[in-house]
Amino acid sequence: MMKLPRLRQILLSSCLGLLLLVSACGEVQEPSRWDGAQQQSTEVTSAAGQPVPGSSFNRLFPSASGGYSLVYTQEKAGFAEAKLQQGSQDMAMLSISDTVSNPSAVQKFQQSNTQVGGYPSSSLTPNDTAILVGDRFQVKIQSRNPAFTASDRETWLQRFNLNGLKQLK
């Protein structure tokens, strides 16, 4: 008589364990908001083409001169960034981005009535200046020091190899 309750306990435990295993394996996870954003970003990129590798941009940055140095800080598909330093002071952030991944970035240049170096320009804040090259590449400089003025940003924007950038595909 002792064996029957023990057998029932083992059988019940086994059934419960199997039920838990089956229910855990069958769970469907809802996509997060990040999954949707990733999918949308991928769809935009594949519809418009692939962004240029960030390493292709590095050679198009201006050469450092006049007591300035350039320190590359970030590089990824469609983007490259560097700090412009004078001594130990960060003066500005320089960047090139491929708008193929972000077509809405081009819109701010479509209504522009200002130019730098023959390219439409835009300033979203008093500390930045950007131009659109070849209807695709945004070249942007953000002042990090009050001594680095709008005039300095325009001068440094024209030091980029803009013709080389325009030829990238």
Describe this structure in words.
The chain has 169 residues and is α+β, with helices and mostly antiparallel strands. Helix content is 36%, strand content 27%. The protein is built from six helices and seven strands. The protein has helices spanning 3-25, 33-48, 55-58, 107-110, 150-157, 162-167; strands spanning 68-76, 79-86, 89-98, 115-116, 119-122, 128-133, 137-143. The chain has a seven-stranded antiparallel beta sheet with strand order 1-2-3-7-6-5-4. A hairpin with a 5-residue loop joins strand 5 and strand 6 (128-133). It is elongated and about 90 Å long. The N and C termini lie far apart (83 Å). The model is unreliable at 37-47 (pLDDT under 50).
Spell out the blueprint of helices and strands:
Layout (H helix, E strand, L loop, with lengths): L2 H23 L7 H16 L6 H4 L9 E9 L2 E8 L2 E10 L8 H4 L4 E2 L2 E4 L5 E6 L3 E7 L6 H8 L4 H6 L2
Antiparallel strand pairs: 1-2, 2-3, 3-7, 4-5, 5-6, 6-7
Q: How many helices?
A: 6
Kindly report the spatial arrangement of strands forming the biggest sheet. 1-2-3-7-6-5-4
Q: Helix and strand succession?
A: HHHEEEHEEEEHH
* Average pLDDT figure: 83
